[in-house]
Every structure is written in C-alpha cells, then in structure tokens.
Design goal:
It is a single chain. The protein is an alpha+beta fold. It folds into 5 domains: 8-18 and 20-53 and 188-269, no CATH class; 57-177, TATA-Binding Protein, CATH 3.30.310; 298-587, Roll (Elastase, domain 1), CATH 3.10.170; 595-700, Immunoglobulin-like (Sandwich), CATH 2.60.40; 703-874, Jelly Rolls. Helix content is 19%, strand content 28%. Strands 1, 2, 3, 4, 5, 6, 7, 8, 9, 10, 11 and 12 form a 12-stranded mixed β-sheet that branches. Strands 25, 27, 28, 31, 32 and 33 form a 6-stranded mixed β-sheet that branches. A hairpin with a 5-residue loop joins strand 10 and strand 11 (251-257). It is elongated, with a radius of gyration of 35 Å.
Length: 979
C-alpha cells in the first residue's frame, strides 16, 4: 500500500525544502518577487553561508565502526554514497540480503526495516532514536517494495529527514537515508501561538517576497528546519510553515521562527519553465501546420442537454437528427480557466449531423486558441502517463485546473496544484500554444505525485530535467520548447551537438542542472532502443525513468535507483540485466560510482631521484566498459624552491583499477602531487578530494625524531600538552574518534586521536588551542612538524585554523579571497599527511607548537583532528658545522654566538625581536616589544617629570652609556634581516 497524507503535493514540497540557496535572496529586479528556486535563508536565520542549491554525494569514505557492523550483519559486498553535507550514507547497495516474504508481505518488510533501522542508527541517522522515525510508505509496484520512514524530533517533523528500504525478489537490495544528524533544538516554553506567529511573520514575509497583497495561509504545525550549506549542517530551528500565494507573481513556502515569528527561509513553489533571450527555441507551435485531433473527455451540450465525449471525441445523443453542439474547454481531466481581462471562457456552437464530424477552429482568436490547445495538450500528456508510465498515479484521473493567458510573458509554471501559461508578447509566444511547454509543466506534477514519501524526495533540478524528458518522450524529440521565440529552435536540448552536460561541472541554476539528468535519460533511451529495438527500448526506459522519479532524492542518487529498478534477482553486486548500458549513459554525464585513493609514502629517508605513486580506483564496474579509463595523469610541484620543476606525466596502467607514475623528489624537501582520472567519456575524477588543499605531500630526507606520539599511551593533556579557550572550557579532548559529519570514523593508527571536538562541530565566537610541550631542538637547523591531519573548517576569511610556533603563524587554511563571498571550505575526507617546516621561523632553539582555531559566529565544521604527531630533524642540517644549508641563513661554525653581530646559535642572521641588541637597534625586547621598546626595536620615550638632566647616576651614568655606544661602534656588523 502507498500511505499518503491527503495534501500530497504540499507534503512533497515540504520535504523538498531540505536543500536551499542564498543568504541574500536574489530578485529579478527592484521590487520584484525573489526567485528562491530552492530554500533561501533570510537574515533572521543568521546563517553565515548560503544554503545549498543541490545535494552532492561522496562515493567513498573511510569505513566507520558503524559501517563495519552493518556490513558484517548483511554479509556479501556492499557500497555506499555519502551526503557531503551531513555525512550520512544517502544510498547503500550491494549483494542483497534474504528477507523471505518481504515482497509479498508488507508486514514482514516493515518489521525487518524497523529492526534494521533501530540496530543501525549510528550509521543511518546519527544522534537519533528509533522512536524518532514514523512509517509513511509501504509501497509495492509489483517488483520493488519500498518502506519509507520520516524523521521527527520530540514529536515534530524534521523537514527532509527520512530513511528508506527497498526489497526485490525477497531480498533487501538498497537502503536510503536523508536523515539529519545530531538534531538538537531548544524548545522554549514561551513560544508564540499559531495565530501570533502568522501575525508577526506577515509583514516581513510580504516584504521579503515583494507580494504586498497576496493571501497568507495559517501557520502550520511546528517542524524542525535544518539549514544545510554545501559542506555541513549550519543548525536547526524550530519553525512553523506557511504559504503566501501571489499566483503568477510567485507562490512561496515560508518558515517562521516558532518563538519570535521572524521569517527564517522561503522557497518558491511555482515551478517555472523559464525562457531567456539567449536560448533559441524549436518545437510544436503555431508555426507548424494544424491537424484535427479528437477532443477527448470533454463536457459538452447537445441542443441544451449535457453530454460527454469519449476518448476518441465521439458523442452520443437522441433523437437521431442534426443538432447544435456547444463545446468549451472543460472535461473530465482538465478545466481551463481564462486569466485574460474579462476572463471569458472559450466556447463554440457547432452544427453536427448524425455520423458526421465537426471541427472547432479557434485559431482566429489567440486567447481562445490558447485555451483549446491547453485543453488538448493536457489530455495528451495525461493519456501518455496513463498508457505508458503509471496508470495508478494519484489524481491522474481528476480534473486539473489550467490557467491560461496570464498577463505576463515568456514563462509557464506548476504551483503544486495547477499548471499556468503566460500570454504572448513581442519576445515570446503564448506558452499555452506550445505543446512541449504544457507537457513540461505536467512533468512537474508527475514527479511530485510519483515520489514515494519517506523513500524518494522532490528535487528541483532533477524535476526540470525529468519534465523536459517527459516532453521528449511524447514528441520523440530531444529539443524541448520549439516555437517559444517564434522559431523552430529548441528552448533546451537533451541531445546537444557540441557537449553533454556533466555532473558536477555543469551544476548551475536548476533548469541548466536539470539537463544533466534529462540528457542522461535521453542517452539511455537511445542506447536501449539500439540494444532492444524501439518498443522494448522505450518501455524499459520508461520503467527506469519512473523508478528514479519514485525513489531518487537528487540527480546523483538516480543512478542507484535506475539499477535497483533494472535488477532481476535482489542482488546488485552481481549486476543487472542492462547495467552496462545504464552505467555508460550515466557515466557520460559524470554520474558514476567510481572513486579512488593514491597509495604513496608520506616520507622517504634514503636519497632517491623519484618514487612510485600508485592510483588505486574503486567502484568501477567489473562487467562494463562504460567505466573505461582514457588516461590517468599525475602532476606535481615543489612545496618550496624550484626543485623539482612543476610538471605532469601520464600514469602507466598496471591493471584496470591501478595506475602508477614516477614522481620526482625534492632532496631534503617536500613535493606536492595529485591525480586526475579521465574516462573515455571525458569526465574527470580528481584525487585528493579537497578543493582547498588538492595536493598530497611527500617529504624526502633522513630524519631523527625529536618528539613523537601516536596518542596510544595515554591522555596527552595529562602528559605535558596544554589547552585553552577564550570562552568556556577548552573543547580539546583525547579519545577514539566518534565520526561526526566531517570527522574521521577511525584513527589513522591505533584507536585514539586528539581532537578539537570529538564527534561534533566546534563552537563559534571563540578561539581554542592545544599546545605541545616545549622541545629543545639543539643544533638541528632543519626541523619539521610531520603529522596526520583530518581538518574541517570554513574558508579562512571567516574561520582561521592555524599552526603556530612560539606564537608565530607557520600555516593557515586557505581562502577564496573574495571577501564575504569566500566559500573555499577546507574539508579533509581522509587522514592527510602534513609536513610543516619550522626552522628559521623564531629566534630560539626552544619550540612550542600550537594548533589553534578561531571561529566567528556562523558556519562551523568538525575542526582539528590529530594523530601520529612527530617533530623531526633532518640529519644533514646541523647548525655550527660551518656548512650553510637551505634552511640556514648563516653558519659560521664555532663563531656562531647569541651576541651582537654574530650568526646566531640557531643559524639565523641577527634580527629585531631576537632579544639581542644589534647595531641599528635602539633596543630589542623580543618579538612583541615592551613598554619601553617597540616591536620594531625603537625606544619608546617616557616623558620626564621635570629638569633637563637625569636625577640619578651622575657622571657614572653618562660614562656607562658612552662605553656601550663606543663598544657598538667597534663590533663587526653583519647585514641582517628585519622582521
């Protein structure tokens, strides 16, 4: 059975708002309603970053303890794709697990799904309880039984939160989770009433969406609203939903704070097929020849008596004599409403004889013509869905309202209930006259009504592509929207001549992004027709299409759902009948399950000109050529200096999954390298997977350890390490990783790590740090920090993750460097080796190393996670041996001394801030100066209390000063660097 709430459309749109757009909403023009095609945060939400416009999946992750428990329980081979923002496995698929009777019995399937969910909450819904999930769907289409649960928190719906299970051939074949992790909201007792929330929100909502007079619904039940950015959940808010309906000007879903009534976020509910002047259109339009088509299921009058036409347009009356037939644009499946001035419904009185035909030609009047064409096109698209896609689609056989001749231009939209078409202008055709546009708008209704609640989810970009594809299915033409601009060019094409749209390179606004899905499905249709012939190929394409509409939650997850639909034995690990064709079509558009790692040493002690790095790919199909690789390229550059020169080489193939390359090394230094995997279809996979730090590091040089810890012998905070915070107690802690959304699930070695937050995000508006015990590096002059790092932090324009030595910054996370628009978050997805040179940074042999993070009040991530920390020294660089190395500014051997003018005992030139008074300095009180000496070594004059001479010291004082000055004049002086 399919369990649905009565207001299915509203429910689906509520679920869809788990994704979102911008902190500052976009508007089409001053005073015009905002676009807000996805959930858009308003200032009251206090989000530091835009909400995400699409959901991206990560196709590999270091296995967690929770994953291992599930894998052991199910047996066989399983894989997962993880939501980049929440860290939750969006799709899990694999060998299948036998659940006898699950497909025939809804009770057996539900019981097993509940048990699996309860036992594996740590993986599927971190931080939740089994009682937080409520069954909303137990649906069977004859082949796949889908069980869907929606997420709650303290009895309130978590918007977008759901977990689902798919059974095929009495086997669990796949699991989906869009659960929101670690939901926590303070439910104040002083919340506003439902009426007061609406009253408080009314003014700000009207202002935000520029709809001053549009009606606003009552506030709905309290929900938990997640605010999700591209890489993390920014927080949760207790809110009440409401809608404001401005018709063609915009219909919006809004969320108001349940305590204050402030509007937190809005989302446009009208789904527009928008044309812009840069697109050139072709298609079925008034420029083509007209044909006579039946008027199906129309409500008519025959000489004053009500009658109804059949599907073929025939009508029966008595007596058997010529009559007058009155027809209008109202029927069983669609009622057309004329929104033009006056609102006159189109009708005609036509003479009809027994056995005769009569044709209503309304083409002389564009407003009447648009009504007639929308009536015909809506019947055509509904009939296609009924015949070829899903005869049991909810509301398919109900009458749908279609508003025509709306006094705007170049657009059409679906608002969750009705389809709507704009009038003609000098730029664009009346969209009611364009069959493709009518098919497209009904495509949004098809998607909305097909989603199995708690299993799939409405996604705006995917829906645009799905709606274009529905039009293409009916017209057998990948060019959608011909005639939009009065020409035969398509508004959009699913089969472009030049270049296919690929994920994620072509992710933009939703119509553009939708071409990735629509183009994938068109390519799949072409391939299946070539493989199976036209009838069978189209039938299978339609089946896979509906499977993705029902169960996918976004474009990337549609690949797995297509394979689930195609499967014939409840086991995805052994392939599906058309797996290779499916993978090839999806892969051509950048949608694949492949990922990989680079196997290479982090350090090399012995001298060598180069070393081997190995690219190991996983997730490639064992059976299909669609994942064939064209080339693997490894490129490198020196971390500092000019050796080795930056370059690249094509890696050599060892086997289908493994490639290797020789990477040149930097003697006593570090190189940076990455791999780019190009598939035959030209799509690219890049390793390492971190936009802010895309290069791995490799250090060559013989070293000795000065201090090392793997954190396995006890709590370092009880063994000389120190920590602190500018607010509250320090969050730094020692223990096993707890696997937050951007945190590691296992330690790099052993079982323990030192973390800024174990299993959670750092708190804002504070700085916290952890610091190692002081280390005396002695005469070693090439000292390096080498450790394993798992860091997740916002762009350093906002949050600064630093490594400091004796208070001086030696490393900081990257920034996009475009002010408040900067969004280059640093998110490690593996334990990264990090090499940091420490020598020459501070004027001393005693080093204290600190990891620090300063956060603003906005977006937060998992912060620093540390393991296997070592401070090492290169044995070939010894201060005092008289041989100057690259990390030494000078080395005078035994003449090195911490006195004026000398090469220091740590092989650095005299410099202001080293607390040694050198020529040209009035004073030197260290790097921070003092009350009497600036940090640039200039004396700070202290005002005299009176008189013209010093009151103390007499002549002796003057002589002493003169002796010091005289001494300075005869000291040999070495040119030195200033700080």
């Amino acid at each position: 059975m399919r369990l649905r709430a009565p207001a299915m459309v509203a429910g689906s749109l509520l679920i869809a708002t788990a994704t979102a757009q911008a902190v500052v909403p976009r508007s089409t023009s001053s005073g015009a309603p905002m676009q807000a095609e996805t959930l858009t945060a308003l200032p009251a939400a206090k989000t530091a970053k835009p909400l995400r416009t699409y959901t991206d999946l990560r196709w590999a992750q270091v296995p967690s303890a929770a994953w291992s428990v599930l894998e052991t329980r199910l047996g066989g081979r399983w894989r997962a794709a993880y939501d980049r923002a929440t860290g939750v496995p969006s799709r899990i698929w694999g060998s299948g697990f036998a659940v006898p009777g699950a497909n025939a019995s809804p009770v057996i399937a539900e019981t097993y799904a509940r048990m699996l969910l309860a036992d594996h909450l740590a993986l599927l819904a971190p931080g939740a309880r089994a009682s937080d999930f409520v069954l909303v769907s137990n649906h069977s289409d004859g082949e796949i039984r889908s069980i869907g649960f929606v997420q709650q928190y303290e009895g309130r719906r978590v918007v977008g939160g759901q977990v689902s299970f798919r059974f095929k051939r009495d086997r669990l074949i796949a699991i989906g989770s869009e659960a929101l992790p670690d939901v926590e909201v303070v439910v104040s007792k002083n919340r506003m009433s439902r009426a007061n929330v609406r009253s408080k929100a009314e003014g700000s909502l009207r202002s935000a969406v520029a709809l001053s007079a549009a009606p606003i619904s009552d506030a709905g039940d309290e929900v938990i609203l997640p605010l999700i950015a591209d890489d993390s959940v920014q927080g949760y808010r207790l809110a009440r939903p409401m809608t404001i309906d401005g018709g063609a000007a915009g219909r919006y879903l809004a969320y108001a704070d349940a305590a204050t009534g402030e509007v937190l976020a809005v989302q446009q509910l009208n789904l527009y097929a928008t044309g812009t002047l840069r697109y050139k259109s072709v298609s079925r339009h008034p420029g083509n020849s007209r044909v006579d088509l039946p008027a199906p299921n129309a409500h008519v009058m025959v000489s004053g008596s009500p009658a109804k036409t059949a599907a073929d347009g025939s009508v029966t009356w008595s007596p058997d004599a010529a009559q007058t037939l009155t027809t209008a644009v109202i029927g069983d499946f669609v009622e057309v409403v004329n929104q033009a001035a006056g609102g006159m419904i189109a009708f005609a009185d036509l003479p009809i004889a027994p056995g005769g035909n009569v044709v209503w030609d309304a083409s002389a009047n564009i407003e009447d013509d648009a009504q007639v064409q929308v009536y015909l096109s809506t019947n055509i698209v509904k009939d296609y869905v009924r015949t070829y896609l899903d005869p049991n689609l909810p509301t398919l056989n109900d009458s749908m309202t279609a508003n025509v001749n709306i006094a705007q231009d170049c657009n059409a939209f679906f608002d969750g209930k009705t389809i709507n078409f704009f009038h003609k202008s000098t730029k664009c055709q009346n969209t009611g006259l364009l069959q493709d546009v009518v098919y497209h708008e009904y495509g949004h209704a098809l998607h909305t009504l097909s989603v199995i609640e708690g299993v799939g989810k409405f996604d705006g970009a995917m829906s645009e592509g799905a709606s274009d594809f529905l039009a293409a299915l009916i017209t057998n033409d990948p060019g959608m929207g011909r005639g939009f601009f009065f020409t035969n060019e398509p508004l959009r094409s699913l089969d472009p001549i030049v270049e296919e749209r690929r994920w994620p390179e072509d992710v933009q606004e939703i119509h553009h992004t939708g071409l990735i899905y629509g183009g994938t499905m068109w390519d799949l249709r072409k391939a299946l027709i070539a493989e199976l012939g036209e009838p069978a190929g189209i039938a299978l394409t339609n089946k896979l299409y509906m499977g993705t509409l029902r169960r996918a939650t976004n474009i990337p997850s549609s690949l797995i759902e297509a394979l689930v639909e195609d499967d014939d034995d409840g086991n995805l690990d052994n392939g599906t009948p058309h797996e290779c064709t499916i993978r090839k079509a999806f892969g051509r558009h950048g949608l694949r399950t492949a990922t990989g790692v680079i196997a290479a040493p982090a350090t090399l002690a012995e001298p060598a000109a180069s070393t081997l790095v190995r690219v190991e790919l996983t997730g490639l199909s064992d059976r299909c050529e669609g994942d064939n690789i064209f080339s693997v390229t490894v490129d490198w550059k020196p971390a500092s200096g000019e050796t080795p020169a930056a370059n690249a080489m094509t890696a050599t193939k060892a086997d289908r999954d493994t490639y290797y390359a020789e990477v040149p090394l930097a003697p006593d230094g570090t190189i940076m390298y990455r791999a780019r995997v190009q598939f035959d279809d030209q799509s690219i996979l890049t390793l390492a997977d971190n936009l802010a730090d895309p290069y791995y590091q490799l250090y060559q040089g013989k070293t000795i350890p000065l201090y090392c810890t793997s954190f396995e012998t006890g709590d370092p905070l009880q063994m000389g390490w120190t920590t602190g915070s500018t607010k509250d107690a320090s969050p730094w802690a020692w223990g096993p990783p707890m696997g937050g959304s951007t945190d590691p699930h296992v330690a790099f070695s052993g079982e323990h790590i030192l973390a800024q937050e174990l299993g959670g995000n750092y708190k804002g508006d504070r700085t916290s740090f952890v610091e190692m015990p002081a280390i005396d590096v002695g005469r070693w002059s090439d000292v390096r920090l080498q450790y394993r790092r798992w860091l997740a932090v916002e762009d350093s324009h906002f949050d600064k993750a630093r490594i400091k030595v004796n208070g001086k910054e030696v490393w900081i996370n990257a920034t996009q460097n475009i002010g408040d628009g900067s969004s280059l978050a640093h998110v490690d997805r593996e334990w990264r080796f990090h090499d940091v040179s420490l020598s020459g940074k501070v004027p001393t042999n005693i080093l204290t190393i600190r990891w620090e993070l300063s956060a603003d009040t906005g977006l937060a991530f998992g912060g620093w996670q540390l393991d296997d920390v070592c401070v090492v020294a290169n044995v070939n660089s010894v201060c005092g041996d008289g041989v100057k190395t690259v990390t030494e500014a000078c080395d005078d051997g035994q003449a090195n001394a911490d006195k004026a003018g000398a090469c220091r005992t740590y092989c650095q030139l005299p410099a202001c801030g080293d607390q040694i008074l050198d020529e040209g300095e009035d004073c030197d009180a260290g790097p921070d100066g003092s009350g009497s000496c600036t940090d640039s070594c200039a004396r700070i004059e202290i005002p005299s209390l009176g008189g013209c001479c010093s009151t103390g010291g007499g002549v002796g004082g003057s002589l002493a000063l003169g002796a010091i000055v005289g001494g300075l004049l005869v000291i040999p002086w070495r040119r030195r660097r200033r700080r």
